[in-house]
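WARN no homologs supplied; continuing
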Amino acid sequence: LPSHAALPIKAVVSTQSTGVVSNLMLLNILIAMFTESYDRISQQQKTIWKFQKYSLLSDYEQKFLPAPLNIIHYPISFFRWAWKKHVKAKKTYENQLSSGIDKTLRS
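OK structure emitted
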């Protein structure tokens, strides 16, 4: 080939190789971005999983019977809650009553 004909071929080869290298660089950047996103999402997923596991275990810790028999748990819990409310209301009433008696005695 004459030297003046080799110049366009060198230009084409140079342009093509630059295109291939730039595409490889862009592909590498894309892979790095996907990897970073995957790592971030994976870390968030692990944190969420740990919170859900804790919630599930703490829910089971509060129940004292296995699944078919835990229907007994709910009425017992309700009566326990109602008893605590009753005792609290009774104490509040007694405190108000005793403070009212104290006020009338002082008068």
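The chain has a mean pLDDT of 83.
OK
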